[in-house]
Every structure is written in C-alpha cells, then in structure tokens.
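Minutes, project check-in

Agenda point 3 was the complex the collaborators sent over. CS summarized: two entities, 636 residues total, and the question is how they sit relative to each other. Sequences were read into the notes so everyone works from the same version.
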Amino acid sequence: MARRDPIYGLMAEFDSAQALVDAAKKTHEAGYKKIDAYSPFPIEGLAEEIGFHHDEVPLVVLIGGIIGGCTGYLMQYWMAAVDYPLNIGGKPPHSWPAFIVITFEMTILFAGISAVLGMLALNGLPMPYHPVFNVSRFAFASKDRFFLIVFSSDKKYHPVETKRFLEGLDPRSISEVPS
Amino acid sequence: MPEQYKSSTEIERAPVIEPGHTFGTVTEKISAIVLTRPATNGWFIGFGLAFMATMMLLYALGYLFLKGVGIWGITIPIGWGFAIVNFVWWIGIGHAGTLISAILLLLRQTWRNSINRFAEAMTLFAVACAGIFPAVHVGRPWLAYWLFPYPNTMRVWPQFRSPLMWDVFAVSTYATISALFWFTGLIPDFATLRDRTEKRWIKLIYGMLSFGWRGSARHWHRYETMYLLLAGLATPLVLSVHTVVSFDFAIGIIPGWHTTIFPPYFVAGAIYSGFAMVLMLAIPIRKIYGLEDFITERHLQNSAKVMLATGLIVAYGYGIEAFMGWYSGERTDMFLLWNRLHGPYAFWYWSLLLCNIFIPQVLWIRKLRTSPIALFFISLVILVGMWLERFIIVVLSLHRDFLTSSWGMYYPTRWDYMTYFGTIGLFLMLMFLFLRVLPAISIFEMRTLLPEAEVKE
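CS then shared the predicted structure for the full assembly.
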C-alpha cells in the first residue's frame, strides 16, 4: 500500500467563475493532471479544462432503458401469453399493440432510475466525509466562491513548487488540505 | 413610431431576475426563508386550516374503509363519480410541473429556473392526491396492490390489455420519475443549506440529504448530463401519462368517450389547469416571501400566455367533440351533444364553457396578464372549469347511454365532497411544509442566470 500523504492537496480560492476556468486551464496546461475544480453552479467547459472527457452517464441510461423495455415487454408476453392466457374479447394472447404502453413506461422508469443511480455511483456519492471539507473556507464553495485543488498524489506535485505556481494564478487565498 | 404601434418585443421585457443580485444575495435570500425566517402567525393559520382539511380527508377515508364505496353517490349507471373526476383533475394539475422542469429545460427557456422547484413540488403533491382516488375507488382498497404484477399464491396475473393497467404503470412511473427529478434537483441546494446553517442537527440533516455534494467539476458534468437525460425522458413521459389517462375513456365504447381527439385534448387541458395552479401558488408565495425579484412579471406573463394557448387547444377539442357528435350521424352521439346543451346537467356544461373558454379570453389583454390579482382569479376560474370538464366527461356520458331503461342521475354525497376538499387540504398542507423546510426556488439554477456566471473561453 502506498504511503498516505498527510497533505491531501493544495487548494486555491477564486472570486469568479472566469478566474477559476482560466486557472484550471493554466494548471492543466502546466502538466498537473490530478486536479479538481469546485463551483457553486455548473460551469460549461470547466470539466474539459481539467481533463475530464469520458462521461459514462449516457451509456448507463441507454443500458437501463434497453433492460427496462425488454423487461416490460417480456413480462407482459410471459404473463399474458404463456403463464396465464385469458381470452379477452377474442384478442390473441400475444396482443402486442396492447403491450406497447407498459413497455414504454418501463423503458422510461428503468432509464430514469439508472440515470440517477448511475450519476451518483460514478460520482462516488453519497460520501458524507471528504478531505476538502476540512478547509473551513470551503463552505463558500456552495455559495459564491470557486476552488481549484491540486492533489498531492499528482506526479508533478511538490509542496513548495506547486504552492508557488498556484500563487502565480492570483488566487484570493491558498490552503493546505489535510487528509 | 407611436408607442401603441410598437410590437411587444420592442417594448422592454421584464427581466427574469431583477438586476443587482449576486451569487451571495441570491443564496442568502432563498436559503433564509428556510434557515432563519421564523414561522409567522399567517403560516400557522394557513397550515392549521390545511391540516384540519387533511384530518377531514382521513375521517372520510376511514369511514369509507368501514362502510365501502356505497357512502359515495356512485350507482349504476354512474359508477365513476367524483373519484375519477378528481383523479383526472389532480393528475392534470401535476403536468405543468413536469412541463416547466423538463420541456422548458430542453427548450432552453431560462425563465423556468425560478419556478421549476415549487412547480415540481406541486407535481409530486398533486400526484399524491390523485393516487388516493383510484386506490380507494377499487372497492376493497386494502387489496389495491393486486393491480401490480407480483407472484402470488392465486397464480393469476393482471390483464395487460386493459387501459386501467396501463394507467397503473403510467402513473406510478410518473410519480417515481417526478420524485427523482425533484430530489436530484435539490441535492446541490441541500449542500448550500448544509454550509449555511449554524445549528448542528440541521447541518446533519441537510448534509445527509446532500449526499456529501461538494460541487466538483466532474460531478457537475455528470450531474448536468443526468439532468438533461432525465428531462428528455420526462418529456415523452408526461405526454404519455395524460394520454393513457384519456385511454381509460377512449378505449371504451361509451358515447362521448370513444374518440381519437382525447389524448391531445387531455394533455392540453392538463397543462392548462397545471399552469393555473402554478400561478395560484406563485402569486401569493412571491408576495408573502418577497420573491418579486426572482418571480417577476415575466413569469406571470409567460404562464398566462401558456394558459391562453392551451386554453384555445381545449376549446378546439370541445368544438371537435361537438362536431364529431353531429357528423357521426350516430343517434347516441347526437343525443349526448343535445343532452350536454339542454339536459339536466346543462347548467354545468354552460358553466364549463364560460370558465374554460370565454372568461380566459381576457388574457389577450396585456394589462390583465401582468396583474397578479387578476391572474389569481382567472386561474381560479380555470381550475374550476377544468374540474367541471372532467365532471361532464365522466358523468354525462354514463348517465344516459344506449338504453333509456338504464338511465340515471348522479348525486354526490357529503362524503364525496369531504374527500375532494380533503385532498385540497392535503395538497396545501404539503405545500406549507415544503416552503418551510426546502428551498422553494432552485438556488444553483438561479446562480447560472446571473451575468457574472458567464464564462468566456
């Protein structure tokens, strides 16, 4: 097991969304790969600036939808045509047009649930404790401040060099995040 | 060019959010309603009245469980009385919430950001009220779970060719997806409340509800993808729900029900009544909690325009219904039309036309579209009208159909009224609680509307 660094990372605080995006871009270009940015609202393009390109949520939703649709249709087919066939108004046991509505609803239901659970699972939530919460100023990340963190696990991370680099980005404050 | 000839786009439009707000003020203003503002006497009185009405609902339902549906006015031939009327009315009201949160999101109508949260809450509570009715109307409500396909010792399965089964799936899917949409929308705001509160136990509750949300860029990216996909899923879903509700009628062969106009006309009617409810809630809320900066004249105007448009679709639906009744040449269909205009319920049919078609035409007047008081009362009229519409559809088609020997009249009893007004109480009670414990306006989506949120590459 790797040695656990007592410092989780270095965190810089910014005043505006624009400053955060610019800083994230510069940090990523400077060769820092293990970084993250925090903002009180979604900022378009910010995830790409810190090197995040593979969003698997759509795939999860697609798979969920397909499973839901198949489950819905096969369930009705098996129940109405195989296990418990009933003659309703002379319609055939496998009366597929009547099965479309429930197939559709089950597709939506499964896709919707997988969207939410998929997003939570991929984000690693729920996670009540996280080292970034140790920084008291981080409480403003859900109000009007913007934060950039360089994790100490990054190859290029150096306690002094990285701090100097972050200072060059003109942040409002810099804090060490204890792990 | 003289002022009166300028088109409405040239006259300055009211903003979505009043100028001068920052991330900080938006956050403080909305979270203060939940965290620091004390509950006023007005809140306690309103909540108390709604609570009493809810108790009345429980009393009416308790008596129903003891005695059975015979305490209601339903008989043969009118087996679908208030229960189905109220079910369709409540489900319809819920539709505006999903329209605002999902369809307007896909259409990039940013003004939705200030009203989507409580509109979604309205959806959930309306669906909760709606769900009560079919469950207690089945006769033996304690066996209502038989509607779901679960493996059982009787070795039977539900009958999937029935539109009533489709309804079970449509409504339960709708309730689930609406709840998910609402809850995931709240997660970032829970994090805000967690970070704003001073009290430890409140921090703990909101902290748990927020799932430890920290606003990471990666998280936001997946979150936005999920939100957009959920909106894309909810859009066909909401259209399908009232379509399926209309199938409950349209698949039957009763005169006046067996028509293809029903699905679009039901969906339009649902959005019509839903926006009326949104306005009836938004107008007092923005006044009492001082949220005029966030729910501006623009929102009132836009909602009024949606009502005007959907109201005209509904009017078209009535026209086609009448036309098809005459054009079919079918005696029972022509009689139904005559019976609506001149029969024993004619007064209610004319009231319905007055409430749903004639009075709402005043919304063409710009001055009334921007007057909160006028809009409040027009919305009330529309809600009454939409309730009457469902009453006319359910009762008039059933009370005089093919055989004169099986004609009858429908007289609702006090238990019908107690159940109906009881659900209104339940709805309002849930709204009162919602306003006190959850942010009524989406804080993080409001932040994105501010000019300082814009980022250049």
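Noted in discussion: Residues 25-453 of chain B form a domain with the Formate dehydrogenase/DMSO reductase fold fold (CATH 1.20.1630.10).
Follow-up: revisit at the next meeting once the mutant set is ready.
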